[in-house]
Amino acid sequence: MQSQDYKKRLKLQIIIILSIAVMSCGVPNVPTALSSLLERESIRVGTVYGAGTFYNGAEGPQGFEYELLAGFADYLGVTLDLYPFYSYEVMLEQLEEGNLDIVATGDAVTPALKRRFAYGPAYQRVEQELVFQAGATRPRDLAELDSPIIAVAGSSQAHLLSNLFKRLSEEEDEAVQTQLITTEDSDSEELLQQVANGDIAYTVADSNRLALQRRRYPNLAVARTLNENMPMAWALPLQQDDSVKAALIEYFGTVHQSGWFTVLEDKYFGHIRQFDYVDSRAFNYAAESTLTQYKSLFQKYAGDLDWRLLAAMSYQESHWNSDAISRTGVRGLMMLTLATASDWNVDDRTDPEQSIRGGSRYFASLLNRIPARISEPDRTWMAMASYNIGMGHLEDARILTEQQGGTPIFGLTLNAACRNCVKKSTTALPAMATLEAMKHCNMLRTFAAITTA
């Protein structure tokens, strides 16, 4: 995130505060945690590996927490020194020992954790879900579990369950067997995979992690919600002064006000929070049985494009069926019209190689037609919308959006663009355009699934 103005403003505030301290009543200048961090020109941050926190993707480091942390480092004008951990508890111990400045766990805050650490502002709220394998007997109550719940040691889930079982014993006025086992050998995502595979019966996961994993493991089911409103925040050393916390408050206020936080949240979570069990199972089957046949062709003709994006578009167009045909006459893996096929030298639209070659070149041409003033990722999302509903319909939606007081260019990411386009098109565009826009909304979900598969 480019934030030169933010850096200058924050550093000016620090200088003013320190100058006042020097001049007031002869009190010696005592460095704050933030001034020490700025002098060091780096911030040491701990996080855990995971799809929602930090991972090495095809284009380098990625993850919701990672991008927020990189933005904060840029905001301060310092280098981000990131230390990913496999062990949740070891990471927290490193923060307590002063070896880290901040810990971004991607986990919720509990009263027990607040007794160990200070926290920055809450930037999200999540639900904690008791998860079991679909098809198994749904547990009605914690007191009636037939197997223990496995949770990561030291996590918010472990703290929450411990308190719930304690409260249950007090309500029953008798000892209730605590069906909780904590582990440091698996993280939350691995525990969800074990539930999906039938290796363990239950775990508890927050709504963010569960949403990400259900796209890969659609047989994960929610037995009940254990807590509906738990805050997410970054942990700080408990005895540290409030200077870094104050900087975090200003940073999160800035990214919320600018809309960047909404863009980032939509990028990582917006496309997977509406779960479709049947669609997920169909996609997983197609990815294993069909995508392998065409992967080399997508890679061959991708050019400067990401082959996975082309594959995602093809799945939403035809479900990777080379003989697919729509009511309007478009055909093939990339669902080309006769006119588009002719423009891009495609003689047989049902031929997989010709269809992928023509579709990829057509999409690249649409991408080049998007005005240069529109930056990524909006350029790609708008080109995808044009591929589905046509450049003319996209312009109609843009004009209608502007007339009704909205942002004339899709200022958020794909999901927001789709919602806007669908909403406006229902009153002014043909019904087929609306259906195509809805289909366009699903492409990011498919792309994410291919990316993490």
UniProtKB/TrEMBL annotation:
InterPro entries, per database record: Lysozyme-like_dom_sf (IPR023346), Solute-binding_3/MltF_N (IPR001638), Transglycosylase_SLT_dom_1 (IPR008258)
Ranges of residues in domain Solute-binding protein family 3/N-terminal: 42-272
Keywords recorded for this protein, A-Z: Cell outer membrane, Membrane, Signal, Transmembrane, Transmembrane helix
Molecular function terms, GO-annotated: peptidoglycan lytic transglycosylase activity
Cellular compartment(s): Cell outer membrane
Residue intervals passing through the bilayer: 12-30
Alphabetical list of PANTHER family matching this protein: MEMBRANE-BOUND LYTIC MUREIN TRANSGLYCOSYLASE F
Record protein name field: Transglycosylase, SLT family protein
Species whose genome carries this gene: Alteromonas mediterranea 615
